[in-house]
Amino acid sequence: MTIQSILQSLHTIQEWQENTYRHLHANPELSMQEVHTSAFIKDTLLAYGYDVHTIGGGIVGILKNGEGASVLFRADIDALPVKEDTGLTYASHITTKDAHGNPVPVMHACGHDMHIAAALGAAWALATHQKEWSGTYIALFQPGEETASGAKAMLEDGLLEKIPKPDLALSQHVLTTPEAGKVGVKAGAFLSSAASLKIIIHGKGAHGSMPHLSIDPIIIGASLITKLQTIVAREINPFDFAVVTVGSFQAGISANTIADSATLLLNIRAYDETIKAKLIASIKRIAIGECQAGGCLQEPTISISDNFPLTDNDEMLAHQVITAFENYLGKENVVSYPAMSASEDFSYIPRAFNIPYLYWGFGGFTKDQPIYANHNPRFAPAIYPTLLTGTKAAIIAIMTYLKHE
Q1: Would you tell me the crossing angle of helices 383-401 and 112-128 to the nearest 10 degrees?
Q2: Which of 1, 214, 248, 395 is surrounded by the most beta carbons within 10 Å?
Q3: Could you count the other beta carbons within 10 Å of the beta carbon of residue 106?
């Protein structure tokens, strides 16, 4: 009953945890700019007695407690450039500036504030119940998830050398399903790999009345957009998952001017890294071909960013944690997730360590709430029971692998 006794103690920090969540929600910071958030996390972990390291813009707290397994639990900490429209008393009114000095609103529109508060609750539980377990606990707070830059930044700053090698890695995310108070797990491929591409078509500008003197990038771009949709329809096996989305097409600033360039922003998704590579290769081939057909004097400029890996949960870890969740949360509160087309950079870390990992979700909305998707300006999970469920799920999964008999 060791885990149960720890879970029962959470009521003693409920007020602190909920206030912490409100504070984090009201004070979000964009990817790789999480200065105050990181400082708050660092101070909290130090107060709990953790050995704390700042690595690649993230914070890692290490708690060694005798012999046993080493377990890493990761929480992401960045927010989004979204203007909040929740009407909450603790809503974000934070704005920052972009590279051109323009104001940019900031909001925790994806629930990372919930992740931090839950992970700090788990860190408190491990620190205050050390007689109940043995091993090494690694609390990792990662920046820059939204831009797929934070995990890489921590690895590039020496994460592998600066912390003990974990035996496994765990993480979670608040989602719109299942209902608040429940968790969802999927063994195997859970979240798709993804990448964003930027294509710049280099045309030749001219007066709108003299199209014969131009190389019109808008015509070429329009043709390119149509042709790109044939990749999934004609090049990918119908039984395989793939998405190619053109999210932005920008060119020109006046009605009577043919622009000299056009910019397309794309996003791709796949559950197989081979298919992801095929999507990228096909996009490049088609873009170059369309520019040649349109008479461009140079090839398009193509760049890739926001490169997310596949989240492929370890089968054994999934089954073990599902059993633990059912034992301590109740079978009625544990559901099986389908594969999702969202993406995460979490798996870069366990892949670098060459260890198994598990990533699961927990519900953020009660049956009486209107549901708004992650990244929506009105995304507002119910603090209770969402925060308590996320904290319990973290503790249960962590303690499943730390000696507690």
Answers
A1: 50
A2: 395
A3: 22
**C-alpha of 157 from chain center:** 20
Coil, strand or helix at 360: strand
Residue 195 three-state SS: strand
pTM: 0.92
Supply 219's token pair: 């015509």
Calpha distance 49→126 (Å, rounded): 11
DSSP one-letter string for 198-218: EEEEE-B-EETT-GGG-B-HH
| 295-328 residue pLDDT tens | 999 999 999 999 999 999 999 999 999 999 999 9
- H-run or E-run covering 320: helix 315-329
Please name the residues in contact with 327: beta carbons below 8 A apart, sequence gap of 6 or more: none
260 touches 205 (CB < 8 A): yes
**Whose CA is closest to 293, among 304, 302, 285, 301?**
285
pLDDT digits (tens, 9 = 90+) for 183-222: 999 999 999 999 999 999 999 999 999 999 999 999 999 9
Q: What angle in degrees, to the nearest 10, is found between the helix axes of 112-128 and 35-48?
A: 10
Structure tokens at 186: 């999927």
Task: Tokens for 139, please give them.
Answer: 């609390």
**Looking at residues 171-179, what average pLDDT do you find?**
97
The secondary structure of residue 57, as a DSSP letter, is T
**Average pLDDT value for residue range 330-335:** 98
Residues with Cβ within 8 Å of 263's Cβ and at least 6 positions away in sequence, in order, are 198, 199, 200, 201, 248, 249, 250, 251
